[in-house]
From TrEMBL:
Residue spans crossing the bilayer: 12-31, 43-70, 82-101, 127-145
Lineage, broadest ranks: Bacteria, Pseudomonadati, Pseudomonadota, Alphaproteobacteria, Caulobacterales
Organism of provenance: Phenylobacterium montanum
Assigned keywords, A-Z: Membrane, Transmembrane, Transmembrane helix
Origin: domain of life: Bacteria
Name of this chain's protein: Uncharacterized protein
Length: 156
């Protein structure tokens, strides 16, 4: 018997990854101009596509199943949803770093260093810290918009 089944809010599911991607890409675009040609708008447009791929993929295939499974085990609150998003945002770092490591060799070939050494070096990058916070933001927005747009169930 489920304690509280989390319900899927389709508008929130479609809107939240796009909104989270836009927020974090805008932050990156503003702080990473450094004389780049095209300015922040070009950086925003270029980074928005991969950000949406990661955000929608993580939301659909990682966050939503985890949220539905966790809601069967414990009573879900906004705080628990945000903590789940934070943890899953940290988990997403591993495959992304693994993809970067695979092409880190000369001429994007096989890697020349150990994965653990590469991972520790990438973990020291402050931009990696954005992933857990992006996961937490996505979860929090999904929880809030889901509560806003979900029609309460009528008692049977």
């Amino acid at each position: 018997m489920a304690l509280q089944d989390a319900r899927i809010s389709w508008p929130a599911l479609l809107l939240v990854p796009l909104l989270t991607s836009a927020i974090f890409v805008a932050i990156l675009a503003v702080f990473h101009v450094d004389g780049a040609r095209g300015g922040p708008l070009l950086i925003f447009l270029v980074l928005m596509a991969p950000a949406c791929v990661v955000a929608y993929g993580a939301t659909l295939f990682l966050f939503l199943p985890s949220l539905l499974l966790l809601s069967r085990l414990v009573r879900m609150t906004g705080l628990r949803a945000c903590l789940l998003g934070f943890v899953l945002g940290a988990v997403v770092i591993v495959p992304l770093v693994a993809m970067a490591w695979k092409s880190s060799g000369p001429d994007s070939g096989p890697p020349t260093e150990n994965f653990l050494v590469f991972f520790v070096r990438w973990a020291a990058d402050p931009m990696i810290a954005l992933f857990p916070f992006a996961g937490m933001t996505t979860a929090g927005l999904y929880w809030w918009l889901g509560k806003l747009w979900t029609v309460p169930r009528q008692p049977a």
